[in-house]
Amino acid sequence: MREQLELLWELQKIDLDLRAIEDGRSRYPKEIKRLDEKQKIEKEKVQKDRDRIETLEKERRQKERQLNIEQEKIKRAEGRMFEVKTNKEYQAVLTEIEASKEANSREEEEILRLLDEIDVLKKNLSKREKEASVTLEKIETEKKGFQEKMARDDSAWKTHMERKGVLSREIDQELFKLYNTLKEKRQGVGVAGVKQETCQGCFMNVPPQMFIETQKNNALIRCPHCNRILYWEGNDKTK
User: What is the C-alpha separation between 143 and 127, in angstroms, rounded?
Assistant: First the structure.
């Protein structure tokens, strides 16, 4: 029976590992998706600032082109002042020049405002890009960690399944059937370790004499509370 219990205990540990791998298989893709979303948000923040700067740069260039056009108009108007023949025409040209100069003055102020805003945004962008770079690097590292875990789990799954197949043939079929029934009814745990007179499946005390017998691993002993098969690994301080 000792050998059968040892095989059964090994099977139980394998089944728990397989369950943990299954949990990871459902959780890791969700974690990677969450990190992808976080990565996307960080990139969008940076791109939003870049887009804003580009918009302001276009607006600045447009105003500068308009300013050049207006300055050319002033030059042409000033040239016409030597051609006018009446005071009325002179005053009209003069009014046109003054209006253009006022408009140009406003455009120049607006251009300066845009330049200041662009300068501030560029400084903030530089800071955000550095912060985003650090964040994105951390995200990539975390994603890589999950991907490596998934790869290790796939390898472990294959190894465990192969070993489980061997154990299922080596364990007595009636014992194997009992284990599977208990495992199904007891949250995946059909065999529980026992430490310091306590079942590690339900954490209830087992009678002293039962604990002594359990330490021998020579008989099929089941917890009087949860009905799981008890197994002692030999590391209990009370031995």
Answer: 24
CA distance 164 to 10: 9
**Every domain of the chain and the residues it spans:** 25-155, 174-231
- Could you tell me where the beta strands, DSSP code E, fall in the chain? 191-195, 198-199, 229-231
Convert the pLDDT of each residue in 16-59 to its tens digit: 999 999 999 889 999 999 999 999 999 999 999 999 999 999 99
Residue 5, classified by CB atoms within 10 Å of its CB into exposed (0-12), middle (13-18) or buried (19+), is buried
Contact 177, 184 (CB under 8 A): no
Q: Model pTM?
A: 0.65
In three-state secondary structure terms, 32 is helix
Q: Given the structure tokens 């954490």, which residue do they identify?
A: 203
Task: Identify the CA nearest to 220 among candidates 183, 190, 185.
Answer: 190
**Who's near 24: CB < 8 A, 6+ residues apart?**
149, 150, 153
Domain covering 25-155 assigned CATH 1.10.287.1490 in the classification: yes
**What amino acid occupies position 238?**
T
Upper half-sphere CA count for residue 169 (Cβ side, 13 Å): 5
Residues 6 or more apart in contact with residue 43 via CB below 8 angstroms: 132, 136
| Rounded Cα distance, 164 and 11, in Å | 6
Lowest mean pLDDT among 90-94, 107-111, 128-132, 152-156: 90-94
Q: How confident is the model at residue 235 (pLDDT cuts 50, 70, 90)?
A: low
Q: What is the distance between the alpha carbons of residues 187 and 178, in angstroms, rounded to a whole number?
A: 15
